[in-house]
Design brief:
By secondary structure, the protein is an alpha/beta fold. Helices cover 37% and strands 16% of the residues. It has ten helices and eleven strands. The protein has helices at residues 39-51, 67-76, 105-119, 144-155, 169-176, 196-205, 224-232, 237-248, 261-269, 277-284; strands at residues 9-12, 15-18, 22-23, 56-58, 84-89, 91-93, 99-101, 124-130, 159-165, 181-185, 208-209. A seven-stranded parallel β-sheet has the order 3-4-5-8-9-10-11, covered by helices on one side. Strands 1-2 form a two-stranded antiparallel ribbon. Strands 6-7 form a two-stranded antiparallel sheet.
Length: 287
């Protein structure tokens, strides 16, 4: 594999972060609920991610709930100076692991304080308001109340920077009229590209775009073309899907999640894959 030479970092909240980070969601139990099957293995993944150069970790206190933040604290606290931990609020877990919206100002504050406590910090680097929308896709509607609640917590010093998740272009504009938005986290990958226009809009503004489910999420990407092309460049299909995202736009920051050391190592290697124009054209045709 040849080295991938475009920008290896992108500015997030004024700090250079490496474009392949780590998403902690899969460290919780099945359905992102309850403890991991192997706690020691989960801690090992977190430690190796940071040792491998990851300085951007995505999490939330509703993963588990509380589980992933507690694991991050146990594995990494006191945190390296260059580590940026991004969390999110806007949901809670119900009985049996259901996902429930928690979007009133008091919910937002409770979520921030839960994250502070379980991560063991006095202020959160970045908090994304996660609009529930239609769960994995956004839907229109004002988010001003929720963003204003986060902006107030920012004024209190509990939150340093604010981002958004599962939102539309109109919602981004509404939020920007209230407070600076440093990142947007929406579903986007090789076969799910509804956000093409928003991604390009944010790239023009220098705002980070962080795709969730970059490998398809609970239903991993499957494509005969992807598998064929991956074989020709001596990569796995998932490595190729991540490499395509890195080539798609310079403001994309990846947070692939895994509870496996082997998969973590594979994901990190995706940053070294350079794609020719011919390969990009083949992959662009998959949609």
């Amino acid at each position: 594999m040849s080295k991938f030479t475009p920008l290896s970092t992108f500015s997030l909240a004024g700090r250079p972060v490496r474009r392949i980070g780590y998403g902690a969601m899969q460290l919780a139990g099945p359905g992102v609920f309850g403890p991991p099957k192997d706690r020691d293995a989960a801690l090992a993944v977190l430690r190796e991610a940071v040792a491998s150069g990851v300085n951007h970790i995505d999490t939330s206190d509703f993963y588990g709930p509380h589980i992933t933040n507690q694991l991050i604290r146990e594995a990494l606290h006191p945190y390296p100076d260059d580590l940026l931990i991004v969390t999110k609020v806007g949901a809670v877990r119900g009985e049996g692991g259901s996902w429930l919206a928690a979007i009133e100002p008091e919910d937002i504050e409770r979520g921030v304080r839960d994250n502070l406590r379980n991560l063991g910090v006095d202020a959160l680097d970045i908090v994304n308001f996660r609009s529930m929308g239609s769960i994995h896709a956004p839907s229109e509607g004002s988010i001003a109340k929720q963003v204003a609640a986060l902006a107030e917590l920012q004024r209190q010093g509990l939150v340093r920077h604010i981002g958004l998740s599962n939102v539309t272009s109109k919602q981004v504009a509404e939020a920007q009229s209230i407070v600076e938005i440093v990142c947007v986290q929406n579903q986007y990958n090789l076969v799910q590209r509804d956000d093409d226009a928003l991604l390009d809009e944010l790239a023009g503004k220098g705002i980070a775009y962080v795709p969730f489910f970059p490998l398809g999420g609970f239903t991993p990407i499957q494509s005969s073309v992807l598998s064929k092309v991956a074989q020709t460049i001596d990569a796995t299909p998932m490595q190729l899907a991540l490499a395509w995202l890195l080539h798609r736009a310079p403001n994309i920051l990846l947070i692939p999640g895994t509870s496996s050391l082997g998969h973590l190592r594979e994901n990190m290697q995706a940053g070294q894959i350079s794609l020719s124009q011919e390969v990009l054209a083949e992959l662009d045709a998959i949609a």
